[in-house]
Design brief:
Layout: E1 12-15, E2 18-23, E3 26-30, E4 33-35, E5 47-49, H1 51-59, E6 62-68, H2 75-81, H3 95-105, H4 109-114, H5 118-125, H6 134-140, H7 143-149, H8 153-171, E7 173-181, H9 189-206, E8 211-219, H10 224-237, H11 241-246, E9 247-253, E10 257-259, E11 265-267, H12 274-282, E12 286-291, H13 298-310, E13 314-319, H14 343-363, E14 366-369, H15 371-377, H16 390-396, E15 399-402, H17 414-425, H18 429-441
Length: 449
Amino acid sequence: MSGTAKVLHYRAQFSGGRLAVRIGTQFQSRNIININVPGSKNWRSARFMSKGISAEIEKTEKAELHVHTSGSVTPEFLLKWGKDINWADPSYPDFAKLKYIEKKFSVSLTEIFRKDDLASLKRIMESNGDKGEGLEGYLARMDLGHRLLHNNLPAWRALANDIAVNSYTKNNVTYLELRFPMIKPLLKPEEIVEAVYKGLFDAELECPGLKTAMIICTIKMFSMEQAQNIVDAMIALRKQAKYRARLIGIDTAGPEVYRNPQGELEKFDHEKFKIPFALARADGIKVVNHAGEQFLSLEDGLEAIRNSVEVLGAVRIGHALALGIDPGSLQDKTDGYGKYYGEDRIRALQAAQEDLIKFLIERGVVIEACLSSNTQTQPEMIPAIDSHPLGKWISKGLKVVLATDNLTTSHTDLTNEHLLAAGAFGLSMPQITKMISNGFESKLKNNNI
């Protein structure tokens, strides 16, 4: 492998105790390997990782704090559970999204399941980080998972179990917080929570030492009333001891910039969810939030991160890319509003970033870094793993944990994310161990449960 070779698709994997890195569609494996991260002319010098360090990362117990159900439905799972679904049913609320998938990938979903076409499902469900895809295309890949779970309680239970057991057996994840949404299902919130609870409980029985918890995702496009309904359902469920122990977090997910019902471009207003989330916190529900991943201006991204803490009371922030982008890289460019990034604005943004970093450190807020996901959803902003702000955050003293976001859509796992971080930023095993420890220290679950 050349130290300057550009890798288009990458994934660190273990094979027979050795680390393998995918180069295009090929895998190379050796005891001492040079992890070549896809990059640009700013690609950092090659990092060498020994078999010993790789094995240490693989065997170390880990905490997975940011992983979604719909994006972690494996193609194999969907092929098994999706056979009885009428994929051509126009009454499905998001049928237009399924038609979009069929058009984009030139496939018939009905034919895929009739023919057991696993290869086509993988092509649809696993992101390849195409620059033209971005967040919208990435989220579209998750729509097959949403359709599967639309009205299928047994699938909810089986999926929760599948994610937890695979995380434990393949990545030594001994603590898992599973996130799942309430997006137009025909099922009641309490039915979904019960199914996920049973799946996770089954996994704990199957995997000694595994502990799990649940985080419900509201959607940023929801109205205050919709968010309030979810919070009310959570509070009612938590009157039962089994749910109070495991239904412990609430989040807002989905695009931070979207079209409202009138077709107008709109950014998420944190004030909209202020009251529902305050009621959730009063009941002991912890708030985590996606913020600073997608924005029209860097000022908007920084504001979203701050408002997540000040308005919603978030204790962890997912993605937070606005916190790490070098404002200087925006020189002479325009933002989503058509406004110019001049020298004075760049200096103000640099100061605002430093101030926000200090604020987050003082508040003890944790950043959930999702390396693979960020290169896939924001390829223009994060074109390569080594251009991710993880290294900057660590050097500034922020408390950071690594997470997968979506196991299938991002085609990754938690071991892989730590290997990528070690390779891209030259992290030592103590530094990797510190991030892993941060995960256990930052969990929402009560230690006594």
